[in-house]
Amino acid sequence: MIEIIERLLGKGYDLRIYDKNVNVASLVGANRDFILNRIPHISKLMVGNIDAVLNHAETVVIGNSDPDFRSVTEQMREGQCMVDFVRIANSGGKNGRYDGICW
User: Fold this and answer.
1) Which of 32, 40, 58, 99 pairs as cysteine with 27 (C-beta 3.0–4.6 A)?
2) Is residue 37's pLDDT more than 80?
3) Residue 39 burial by CB count (10 A; 0-12/13-18/19+): exposed, middle or buried?
């Protein structure tokens, strides 16, 4: 996912990132060093909940299978799209708003 984020940023996309398993403030050791030294700009894009992403996004990208993401398709507003890398939903092309990739 880091490479995808980097590419999108490089193309000028305005991103918000949510991952409840990554809390920059509580990271230690090699994980903390990697985020703070190699990708500090990404840590600045992180938000505290999925609602912040949904309120901001035109396109939502799901990159892990956390059960919290299963309801995202129902929370999306008109015009938003989802790209799902992990098959979190079985929406199967819901009006062109859902694309599954890599599964």
Assistant:
1) 32
2) no
3) middle
| Residue type present at position 61 | V
Query: pTM, whole model, 2 decimals?
Result: 0.76
The Cα-based distances of 56 to 53, 59, 77, 98, 103 in angstroms read 5, 9, 11, 17, 26
- Bigger pLDDT: 28 or 93? 28
List b or e across 12-36, with b for residues whose CB sees 16 or more CB atoms inside 10 angstroms. eeebebbeeeeeeeeeeeeeeeebe
Structure token pair of residue 72: 């995202």
Token code pair at residue 38: 């190699």
Contact partners, residue 57, CB within 8 Å, separation at least 6? 16, 80
Task: Decide: helix, strand or coil at residue 97.
Answer: coil
CA-based nearest residue to 19, from 1, 40, 37: 1
